Request: fold
Amino acid sequence: MDLNFSAEGQSWPIRLAGDAERTRRALLSALPMRLQLHTPKIAGSHIYWHAPFVEDAEGATHVLAATAGAFIYWPVRQFLEITFAPLQAENAEVTVLGHLDAPVEGIAKLAATLRRDQGRRILEGTLSRVGGGVAAPPPPSPLPQDIVAARMALWAACPADIGRATSSRAIMHPAGPVFTAESEARVLHEFLWWIRAERGGTDEAMRRHTAALALDKAATRLRDFCHMEETPALLFRLKAAMGDAHPFDALIDEAILVAGRIGAWLDLLIPWNDLNEAFRAALDGRRA
Reply:
């Protein structure tokens, strides 16, 4: 056993395996990790949480080839996941980091609880290294410290404006603003990954300009449509930084970490299973 995953008063061992040395180093350097669990919306048979690092895929394993109990990293979505059965149809390459060293039934049971309770409460957990080793601190960031500090605060706790997003009871609130904000953050996150993938090819000035436009658009939507202030302010700050001489590789990774975490906090507000059941019932009633 190399890692210990704990949630809901239970623990599961994970054994690391494979040749993904770069991603493994990033993972181990982030431990111990406090995490919030998310229920899947498309692939189905897994639990996941967001990774506090940005790495490309290693090993190029198709996600549908991951066996039950696989512990994987999913770039672009920036998830760490544990599977418990074959996934539903998706098309992506992932990094296999290891395997659950225990029966998958316990994870399946946790997943059922997660599916039922997401949006009603946050299911938290931890991922730690067996033996309690503490990684060396990362090297200093070349980016402005106000950006780094704001990103660290965002990862440490849900921003107040996101926490308030479900409180309004105006017409079509809170569903309208919350769904809009979550989709804006998710699309921004994925689009920044696309820009990152162009490094070494597309002109850097063009990538900086494109990233700045994407950040500006998402921040404006969160501020003007979703009634947020603190969260879009960080996106506007990143947009401004794209026009400065900061190292672009570090800056785009920082923007990805910010956008992904914003989307993650918003996702946790949404009772996806309840909504899916209501959607099914409405469709079935319409057909009756």
Q: What stands out?
A: The radius of gyration is 19 Å.
